[in-house]
Design goal:
The chain is mainly alpha-helical. The chain folds into two domains: 87 residues, 434 Repressor (Amino-terminal Domain) (Orthogonal Bundle), CATH 1.10.260; 70 residues. It has eight helices and two strands. Strands 1-2 form a two-stranded antiparallel ribbon. Strand 1 and strand 2 form a beta hairpin. The protein is elongated, with a radius of gyration of 27 Å.
C-alpha cells in the first residue's frame, strides 16, 4: 500500500474537493466560505483543523458528526473518510434510509450518488440539468410543431367552411 502524503488523506481530499468546488454551507444563516469558517463551525481552530485533516486525516467522532451537520453530508461517509470505518458501517446500518418503494435502478443511482465525491456529484447534477434542458427543448419543439399543425388544420377547416357557405 503506497504511503499517503500529508495532503493525500481521504479526508483532506474530501475537504479540498468541497472547498475547491466553492460549495458554501449554511448553518443558521451563516455561510462558510473558507476552511477557517468550516473549522470554527465544528468547534476547532483553523490550524488544528488543517493539521488534523492533512497529517493523519483523522477527526474525532464528534468533529466528524459536526462536519456532517455543517456540510449536510452523510455522516457515515465522513466517518469513513476520517478512518472510523467500524463506526461508519454502524451509522450507515442504523440510519439506513427507507428506499424500499424505489425501483432497483433508482436504488442503484442513490447508492452511486452517496459514494460520489462532491465534484462528481456536481458533474452528475450538470449532466441531469443538461438532459432536462434538452428534454424541455425537445418538448417545446414538438409542442411548436403540434401547434403549427393545429393552426394549419384550423385554418383549413375555416377555409373549407367559408367555401361551403359561399356555395349555398
Amino acid at each position: 500500500m503506497p504511503i499517503q502524503s500529508r495532503r493525500d488523506t481521504p479526508l483532506a481530499k474530501y475537504i479540498d474537493d468541497v472547498m475547491q468546488e466553492k460549495r458554501m454551507f449554511e448553518k443558521g444563516g451563516e455561510v462558510f466560505r473558507t476552511r477557517g469558517d468550516l473549522a470554527r463551525a465544528i468547534g476547532m481552530s483553523d490550524s488544528t483543523f488543517s493539521r488534523s485533516v492533512k497529517s493523519d486525516g483523522k477527526l474525532t467522532v464528534e468533529q466528524c458528526l459536526r462536519l456532517a451537520a455543517v456540510t449536510r453530508d452523510d455522516p457515515a461517509r465522513i466517518l469513513a473518510y476520517s478512518q472510523h470505518d467500524v463506526l461508519a458501517k454502524l451509522v450507515a446500518r442504523l440510519w439506513k434510509r427507507d428506499d424500499s418503494r424505489l425501483t432497483h435502478k433508482e436504488q442503484e443511482h442513490i447508492e452511486r450518488w452517496r459514494r460520489a465525491t462532491p465534484s462528481e456529484q456536481l458533474f452528475h447534477d450538470a449532466l441531469l440539468d443538461a438532459a432536462e434542458a434538452r428534454a424541455t427543448i425537445a418538448v417545446s419543439s414538438r409542442t411548436s410543431h403540434v401547434m403549427r399543425r393545429k393552426l394549419a388544420h384550423d385554418r383549413a377547416v375555416a377555409h373549407a367552411r367559408r367555401r361551403v357557405e359561399t356555395r349555398r
